[in-house]
Design goal:
Helices cover 57% and strands 5% of the residues. With 249 residues, it is mostly helical. The protein folds into 2 domains: 113 residues, no CATH class; 95 residues, no CATH class. About 8% of the residues have low confidence.
């Protein structure tokens, strides 16, 4: 790590910097001296205590944009490339925190920024990370195909049920148009058949008629009630069995 550091007046000779508490200003200078060749430092709290500053001063530098905070107590000086000229290759020692460095956009003479917050082209490090993510994405997509197949199974069954329901509804409409044996909107035989299929559930039958857009008149309701009562008492022999209904379908 280089032993000399530079500080630019573009950073320290501004109203924004002078508005920092004196302890925070001093801490910034100490952090600049102790950072590695990429501007990272992992002992900011210790340095703050040694120079008479506090954790609040560290937070102040973060809040004002002078420091970027990472996990595990690691920080990076935002204006590192503005303060320091590019170090000669024979003296340059890359930071140990390459995982955090990969998250930054690094251009000489510009402020470090988190890559997720800018729209600049991806750096080489970001391209390598994205390449690994894309490789893993192939394994993620495979189970999705099976999920789609599993979801489609009940959809097919629903279509079959809908086809059966449409067939029954057409029969109801056809019978109601062609048979006028009573004042009811629906013939007696049709009512008896549907009630038998529904287990004599009047509510279910009325709901089925409504969904089929068949007007349910008062006469029809009386006839439904009458036939339902006959089915419960077993006094009629015209009840169509479930097997007969299934075979007619």
């Amino acid at each position: 790590m280089a032993q000399k550091r530079m500080i630019s007046q573009m950073i320290t000779e501004t109203d924004k910097f002078y508005m920092l508490p004196p302890q925070a200003q001093a801490l910034y200078l100490h952090l600049s001296v102790n950072a590695d060749d990429d501007g990272f430092i992992d002992k900011a709290i210790t340095i703050a205590r040694n120079c008479g500053a506090s954790i609040n001063d560290v937070d102040e530098l973060v809040n004002k944009g002078y420091l970027i905070k990472f996990d595990d107590g690691v920080f990076c000086l935002s204006h590192w490339r503005i303060n320091n000229n590019k170090i000669q290759p024979d003296r340059y020692r890359p930071t140990l925190y390459q995982n955090y460095y990969a998250q930054l956009t690094d251009e000489q003479g510009k402020i470090y920024e988190l890559a997720s917050n800018v729209n600049n082209p991806l750096t080489k490090r970001e391209q390598d990370v994205n390449s690994n993510v894309n490789k893993n994405s192939n394994n993620v997509n495979n189970p999705l195909t099976k999920c789609k197949q599993d979801v489609n199974i009940p959809l097919t069954q629903n279509r079959l049920d809908k086809t059966r329901e449409d067939k029954i509804n057409k029969n109801i409409l056809s019978n109601s148009e062609n048979q006028h044996s009573s004042n009811s909107d629906v013939p007696e035989d049709t009512i008896r058949t549907i009630l038998t299929r529904n287990g004599n559930d009047v509510n279910s039958f009325v709901r089925e008629l409504t969904e089929s857009r068949v007007d349910v008149s008062q006469d029809t309701m009386k006839l439904i009630g009458k036939i339902s009562k006959e089915l419960r008492s077993g006094s009629k022999n015209k009840v169509v069995s479930l097997d007969q209904i299934a075979s007619s379908d």
